[in-house]
Amino acid sequence: MTAPRHVYEVYIRTTPERLWQAITDPAMTQIYYFGSRVDSDFGVGSPITYRQADGRLDIEGTIVEADPPRRLVHTFAVKWDATVNDAPTRVSWEITPMGETCRLSVVHDGFASETATYEQTGSGWAMILSGLKTLIETGEALPIGAPEAEAAAPA
Amino acid sequence: MEGVFRALADPNRRALLDALHERDGRSLGELEEIVPGMTRFGVMKHLRVLADAGLVTTRRDGRRKLHYLNPVPIQLIADRWISRFAASWTAGLADLKATLEAPGPMTAPKHVYEVYIRTTPERLWQALTDPDLTQRYYHHTRVASGWKAGDPITYTWTDGTITIEGQIVEAEAPRRLVHTFHFTQDAEQVAERPSRCTWEIEPMGEACLLRLTHDDFDGETSTYRSVGKGWSPILSSLKTLLETGEPLDIDIPEPAGAAS
Question: In chain A, which end has fewer C-beta atoms inside a 10 angstrom radius, N or C?
């Protein structure tokens, strides 16, 4: 209870398969994950990266567990900020079908303490998961404020 | 105040504040140049920490969002401590230490949820206060209140059973609603003192941030434990209702027990 971690639950009208695809398809993550494209073969032990469209690395990790379409666990090292050198943390995605809806639970833990990684990821997950839900349910990006609008604009 | 200290602890964030001190009203793109080696993703994260600490405010200018320094929280720290140092160096230090080490509100049990919804503050406020709408996403309960401080607020099943009762603490349409929360359908929770729900609506471009804080529990009470998993389906369904016109249909296999 005392170890710092982020826990989120979001309910999405979709199937586990479509939700798994949204988590693992770079064209989809680019829409809701701060413009970042995921890249991995999703085999245990394989690398996983999130990169901006221009190639800049945001996140680097390793697949710890992959059980499509229900569970994905990977390590998570911050690369978007060169001054952050925290040990890799861990992100667990868990999909539970509930009728016409799926529950997506995301747990981000493995922080040594309230590190820079912990602090910098605190408010981002709500944006990512809100955008993911909107994308799946409406087919469109969620236009949150100006930063996303600028990021979506041609450089 | 803890948020201010944490925000100031990072050299990149101090560089961003220095840049805004030099010249206010900068866009994200301009601020990216202040911290070379950091992606836009990183700069956005840092700006959010600064905004959460109240140190940076933003204003939209067409499609751009401009960032402004808000020095008030730093001034408050200066007022609080610098003048005390002048009066009594040791007393000031002791006070600082006590404040930093006190088990402040950070450690009191509370639930905080944030969800971003494509809607306007007015439509979101309506969804929180219109019984025909709450019935669609809030465990089939209808809300009723006069929506003025001191007024009662109830959530009632369609058979007339009141499931939650409370009192309006603050109501500032369409931005902020605070009410007490007392679940009536569980003996253990009835015996507990009412807790508190704070709904905050913040417009962000074409979307709104809805933040729900459920706190003022006397420790990890039965209410605290039971509502922990209950809010996420409500907030998810509210978002779906506003964005698609239909609420979610969730088959929850777990035993009922989430108060709301």
Answer: N
